[in-house]
Amino acid sequence: MPEETQQDSCCPPFGGGNDHPHEERLGWHEYFMSVAHLISRRATCTRGHIGAVLVRDNNILSTGYNGAPSGLPHCNETTCKIYRSTHPDGTIEENCVNTIHAEINAIAQAAKHGVSIKDADIYITASPCIHCLKVLINVGIKTIYYDKPYKIDHISELLRLSGIKLVQIHVEVP
Ligand SMILES: [Zn+2]
Ligand SMILES: [Zn+2]
Fold this sequence. Notes:
Blueprint: H1 28-40, E1 51-56, E2 59-65, E3 82-86, E4 92-96, H2 102-112, E5 121-126, H3 130-138, E6 143-148, H4 152-162, E7 165-168
Parallel strand pairs: 5-6, 6-7
Antiparallel strand pairs: 1-2, 1-5, 3-4
């Protein structure tokens, strides 16, 4: 998307002076990933805090974080209920029974409010698990932007077969 052309003189510098004359404007990828990190702070599963943002045409369509279904006790109020599953490669994966993952919650919010997410991209603070990836493929996500890698070897074959793109965008979280 082309940068907006705005005259520098339209807004006086905050506080009457420009303390950061060389401060770079946040790019779109950093902007949406930073929003995903902020949203992750609403997460309630003590296993990990993840945030997700669905975006199309540089516009936020929906957001989600990991936590219990609406109205049910959250892990930070009770405890995580961990279950283990064995991946076909023999590695053990642990998940929390209480929790809906951030990506799925973002999709659920869009569905609840009738927002089309076809051909959208998603920004997630961690790469998706294989279960969420299957849903992301089916709702028509084009590109998954993630910050922290999570068991990417588990999803490599599905990425290759589906053609969905996975791109790392790392942002420094203050
Ligand atoms: Zn939990
Ligand atoms: Zn997941």
